[in-house]
Write a structure and sequence with these properties.
2 domains, globular, binds nicotinamide-adenine-dinucleotide
């Protein structure tokens, strides 16, 4: 039986590990947090307390980590996979990370006889635990084919968008759009309410028209209008994704004024909306006093 390692067992990695186990794989996971390791052990996932412990066992290793810097540390740091994994190991990075980080890690892993694909995801913790995520994939066709059964246990839809790093470019672009849509949908909702149309009726109209988006079709009814704000995706992570977009735009030298304004507003949100709050809370930007 193929053994899959999962590094990072948070909101997303937990569901991925459980879906992989349900899909018939032998799964071994680890996380920097002892509490998280204990919780996953309680849910029937075998956990170890080091990356070396994963490297000793796994043929394919999925990462679900917060930032590109942490991905780099886990792969190429002193106690990382490069130092401990065997030739032939395939890394699947499902984190939302920087394409340049992935490309550099691909080079280093390649020299050590290992490989990596980027497989960032949409669908949230619910998609992870039900194995219904969507993935945009970057990597060689051979590596993606090899990862196929593992990806299939975690996702319902997969689109290869190019070579290593391309998945992260596509995911950053996707999240920049989601970040922008949240702000514009919040503004038009306020506009309509001031002009006498209730938010739920406005959204019904928009969702029947050409202004609709994932945000108006999913986020508003599922997490915003009902006050639930429990998507499992935090302000901290979305702010990171918007920063990744701004960084990528900066590297290209393009002038993208709307994207720049979206990045400015998400940056500003740190003054009033906490890191651990739900990312949909961005709709409250400008309505809360600073320091609240
Ligand atoms: P999370 O913060 O819930 O989980 C990340 C986990 O990584 C934590 O448990 C943390 O302890 C662990 N970790 C941190 N440093 C580590 C290290 N050095 N070694 C081992 N484990 C370490 O985050 P999440 O919501 O699960 O997101 C994970 C990734 O998926 C992020 O890149 C995020 O942008 C992306 N993502 C999240 C969602 C979502 O809805 N939550 C959706 C799509 C993509």
């Amino acid at each position: 039986m193929t053994t899959i390692g999962v590094i990072g067992l948070g909101n997303m990695g937990r569901g991925m590990a459980l879906s992989l186990q349900r899909g018939g794989f032998s799964v071994v996971g680890t996380d920097a947090s002892e509490d998280t390791r204990r919780r996953l052990a309680g849910e029937g996932i075998e956990v170890v307390d080091s990356i070396a412990g994963i490297a000793a066992r796994a043929d394919i290793i999925a990462l679900s980590l917060p930032t590109a810097a942490i991905v780099k540390q886990v792969v190429a740091g002193p106690a990382g996979l490069l130092a401990s994994a065997r030739k032939g190991v395939l890394v699947i990075d499902t984190s939302t990370s920087h394409p340049d980080t992935t490309r550099e890690l691909a080079r280093q892993l390649g020299e050590a006889g290992m490989s990596i694909i980027d497989a960032p995801v949409s669908g949230g913790p619910k998609g992870a635990i039900t194995g219904q995520l969507t993935m945009v994939l970057g990597g060689s066709e051979a590596d993606i084919a090899r990862a196929g059964p593992v990806l299939a246990a975690m996702s319902a839809k997969r689109v290869r968008v190019g070579d290593v790093g391309a998945g992260h470019v596509a995911k950053i672009a996707n999240n920049l759009m989601c970040a922008a849509h949240l702000i514009v949908a919040a503004e038009v909702t306020r506009l309509a309410e001031s002009a006498g149309v209730a938010a739920d009726q406005l959204l019904e109209g928009i969702n029947a028209g050409s202004g609709r988006s994932g945000v108006t079709q999913v986020n508003f009814p599922t997490w915003i209008l009902n006050g639930a704000f429990d998507s499992g995706f935090t302000m901290k992570l979305m702010r990171k994704d918007v920063r990744l977009a701004a960084e990528l735009i900066g590297q290209t030298g393009l002038r993208l004024p709307l994207a720049a304004e979206v990045a400015r507003l998400w940056g500003l949100s740190a003054e009033t909306i906490g890191d651990d709050e739900d990312f949909n809370r961005i709709v409250e930007l400008g309505t809360r006093p600073a320091g609240a």
